[in-house]
Amino acid sequence: MDEVRFLPELVALAEAIRQRVDTEREYARREAERERRLQEEAPRRLPPAAPATMAWVRPEVHGLVEALGSQWTVGVGLAYHQGWLEASARALLNSDPGFSPPRFSPTFHLQGGLLLGKGALRPHLGLRAILVPGMASYGVGAVAGLRWALPASFVALVDVGAEYCIIVPNHDYRCAALTAQAGLGFDLHLP
């Protein structure tokens, strides 16, 4: 602005505005340069670290079929899983053979293993410990199965196990069992 033609206050205001515009342009130029450098470096930078693995607890209901003995039963369980690990405790209602009317006793399973893969369908491999107090027996076995995430936090699960049991009063008596379990659980996120 011409200092002769305009009041000194207007000239000072125009100069302040010009300086501010220049400052904003310089800031915008620096930001554009920084963005350009980040875009160039993006392929060379490491991906951000994965967030902390969330923990879940899953109440479950089960049905179990023993293929060799043609017996079936139902039960409930509670599973805990975090990342690739899963552990569960299950209580099943068994009928003791040879009793009329049938006599029922609980069977307890403790199971631990790995959840493989990612996504809605995850294979499961693990080990199972079995305790049948009513028959004074215990056993161990291997388990393979699947966990399938359904809508609304439901999870369908299938386990096939091969177990070896020992009956305590008669240590000479050992049994092998091939079992299949199917169930439905509901995942609850732990804070």
Nutshell version of this structure?
It contains 1 helix and 9 strands; from the N terminus they run αβββββββββ. It is an alpha+beta fold and 191 residues long. It has 2 domains: 8-44; 55-190, Porin.
Could you please describe the fold and organization of this structure?
By secondary structure, this protein is an alpha+beta fold. The chain has two domains: 8-44; 55-190, Porin. Helices cover 18% and strands 54% of the residues. The chain is built from one helix and nine strands. It has one helix at residues 8-41, and strands at 55-66, 71-82, 85-96, 103-115, 121-132, 137-149, 154-167, 174-186, 188-190. An eight-stranded antiparallel beta barrel has the order 1-2-3-4-5-6-7-8. A hairpin with a 5-residue loop joins strand 4 and strand 5. The longest helix is centred in the N-terminal third of the chain and has 34 residues, at 8-41. The radius of gyration is 33 Å and the shape is rod-shaped. The two termini are 64 Å apart. The mean pLDDT is 83.
Low-confidence stretches: none
Shape: rod-shaped
How many DSSP-defined strands? 9
* Reported CATH architecture of the largest domain: Beta Barrel
Widest sheet: strand ordering: 1-2-3-4-5-6-7-8
| Helical fraction | 10-25%
How confident is the prediction overall: mean pLDDT?
83
What is the CATH third-level topology name of the largest domain? Porin
| Integer count of domains | 2
* Helix vs. strand class: alpha+beta
CATH class label of the largest domain: Mainly Beta
What portion of residues belong to β-strands? over 45%
